[in-house]
Amino acid sequence: MGTGLTESTSRLRADARRNREQIIAAAREMFLEQGTNASLEEIARRAGVGIATLYRRFPERHTLVQQVALENMALVGAELDRATAEHQDAWNALAQVIRRLVDLRVGAFMPVLALDLEEDMRSEGGVLKTRRDQLLARMEQLVRTAQQEGQLRQAITPIDIMLGIIKLSRPLPVIGAELNARLIEQQLELFLGSLHAVALDASEPLRRQRLTLDELDRYLETAE
Amino acid sequence: MGTGLTESTSRLRADARRNREQIIAAAREMFLEQGTNASLEEIARRAGVGIATLYRRFPERHTLVQQVALENMALVGAELDRATAEHQDAWNALAQVIRRLVDLRVGAFMPVLALDLEEDMRSEGGVLKTRRDQLLARMEQLVRTAQQEGQLRQAITPIDIMLGIIKLSRPLPVIGAELNARLIEQQLELFLGSLHAVALDASEPLRRQRLTLDELDRYLETAE
Amino acid sequence: MGTGLTESTSRLRADARRNREQIIAAAREMFLEQGTNASLEEIARRAGVGIATLYRRFPERHTLVQQVALENMALVGAELDRATAEHQDAWNALAQVIRRLVDLRVGAFMPVLALDLEEDMRSEGGVLKTRRDQLLARMEQLVRTAQQEGQLRQAITPIDIMLGIIKLSRPLPVIGAELNARLIEQQLELFLGSLHAVALDASEPLRRQRLTLDELDRYLETAE
Amino acid sequence: MGTGLTESTSRLRADARRNREQIIAAAREMFLEQGTNASLEEIARRAGVGIATLYRRFPERHTLVQQVALENMALVGAELDRATAEHQDAWNALAQVIRRLVDLRVGAFMPVLALDLEEDMRSEGGVLKTRRDQLLARMEQLVRTAQQEGQLRQAITPIDIMLGIIKLSRPLPVIGAELNARLIEQQLELFLGSLHAVALDASEPLRRQRLTLDELDRYLETAE
DNA sequence: TATGAATGAGGATTCATTCAT
DNA sequence: CATGAATGAATCCTCATTCAT
């Protein structure tokens, strides 16, 4: 319920808060395009603020990455609530949450794994770690239930799921956010299929739009 | 057969050839550790040559990446031969080839996708493109056959497979080559499972060693 | 008496005066540790006020340096009174004043020399210059008398004395205030000896604690 | 004799060596004017080379400071030889060496004391430390002998001498090299006087040109 | 009046890339 | 051919200083 970092935020001056939000928005974009090593100066430029303003809010690159991740996690938390409310069975709830985590690219903001404890533990009471562990705990719960339901393959571990999310989320360099989005969508259902335990009919279609080679080429040409 | 870049190579002086090989070996290492944006100067250093020597052989970073990829592809070509020779059924041959491509991290050297046509077409007669298309053609053949066999899900396209290979191959930054190897291995069988059409028993184990959270943490601690 | 800056000070609101004093205290500390180029923001932080508050009181770094020096000078003025009251002979009075000036590090706050006339003349009626000239005048008086007494070497000028004080007072960077204090003490008596005219017995001890190499090393190790 | 760093230098390409020398010359100037934290970019500019060239030769600021100090020390070593050859008595030899050390501003290049062991020990086999210790050893020898001769005050330690040299050598900021030179000269003889054990006649003049207040003011005005 | 916010400028440092030997 | 030298451009980061609340 909105504790922690988010609170201190609400005491900012109006203009400062707007700046903060613009920076985070720009950062999310850039990180998704170029990875978390994207140029901070470029982020500031896109956000329409001076570089020093960015540094005032986020003294280290790490802090900025964290905040973006945190905001995403908050969203995911809400989605978890919704997914469990909307779905009777654990498998469908789990699948929906995975889709959300991938859509928000949460994994893209955890370069040294979602499991990179080191930095997080130090920083401000480990808020990020705490949040992530809450998510993980709920996910583990879903995993176990889904396996009891017989819908999730027994061999799957939460690590598999986090890793899959991270690998899916990481953007390929150079090709731009749009194509990356298309590619991620392309692979997502495949990944979900690899988790699902139900007997697959060889001919069963994937729940997605098919990406053709032609379409791919068209993206690459415009990206150039 | 054997056209293109490889040929000109054989006309190099003995020492020049040795240099070339050392550079490529060093580059492969560095690219796997740090991605294809790794410092060229550092590559030259590891190879034991001057930076200018590297530039003489590989006038652009792109050229170097290509060469590493090419060498890998040659190996994969051979593996394709072997796989089809060794396996009666297309599915098992395909699976073996995918394993090889991932093991060699071919995808890691295709930052702008294996499908990045643009640069390749310009460069020296598009050797890379040609080679890749040969591989793709053979792979498409396998895909179709495996689907006729009823072993490969109908919905799968060659693009899915290439994308999967690329995403699997890309190393996560910072955590080192060793842990990356472990993680890739971890996900590989999962990916193969997502392709396979056979009815899965929910309890069927994956063909792999399970990575535990503890083990993961141990890696991260030493990496630090 | 009591003209200039000091007066306007007394008209400040109570809290404003407290702020002013805290800033000056923090500034003295920082200047002694890091020189007069120390970060103003850090000074404000130590003083517990906002940076803008500091700027309101001291629109330029120069002003702040001046004020610290001025406060010190006031103290020294009082010491001059006391020294001449307590000592019959000019030499001992002079020596005591020099000790006080060094102890208060007056010289450390005169980066462009106590003799830097330029800035001072412009600033608020040259208060600093006036005060300093008063001190210098009294010191010159002492110098002349001490020379007539035959206790101070004839060749010595007030400039020598001011210079000596300044050079002694300036802290060496990086090594911290404590070791600097020790080193200054170490050299002070040596300096006084260089002024004194009395025939020195080669074996006469200096009035000070001897600093050994070992002790010095210990300081440096902890400072690290 | 000429071992260590100096040698590797001689294998540089002709133009590279010239650059190196220009950088060191510019650095010496700047360090004397502004201290060892002077802007490296400005040094490169004055030396007429690009900033990266400076970094190639001197990867850390520390290295550059060291080299300047080393070159000075080599000169001082030679002077030590000459001083002991030219002077029968230890006192006069010692005094001459002190004058040389101050003239070359050796102390100005030892911000954390000539005794700053830490950094030096790490760097390239501690060449600087070795050199300095050689000088110190010879100086200690002179100190002892001069005390036995009855010319040097018993209470004086080598630390006193090094400290004096350092404090004398450190330039006052802002006022430029020329005035600093004048001021140092002004105080040098005073310092030597503080060491000497002979009975001083109160009226004995110092061996130096007297600096008047008027002259000082003239310097400051032009410096502005 | 007191404050935090915002900003630009300047310095450090690293690389890709071209040149001279 | 092989090399090391030189360079500029880009980024990170810190401060002094001014503005808006």
Automatic annotation (TrEMBL), chains A, B, C, D:
DNA-binding residues per UniProt? 39-58
Q: Which Pfam families does UniProt cross-reference here?
A: TetR_N
The UniProt keywords, alphabetically, are: DNA-binding, Transcription, Transcription regulation
Top-level lineage group: Bacteria
- Which Gene Ontology MF annotations are present? DNA-binding transcription factor activity; transcription cis-regulatory region binding
User: PROSITE patterns given for it?
Assistant: HTH_TETR_2 (PS50977)
Could you list the residue ranges that cross the membrane?
A: none
Entry annotated with the keyword Transmembrane helix? no
Q: What is this protein called?
A: TetR family transcriptional regulator
Q: Which organism is it from?
A: Pseudonocardia kunmingensis
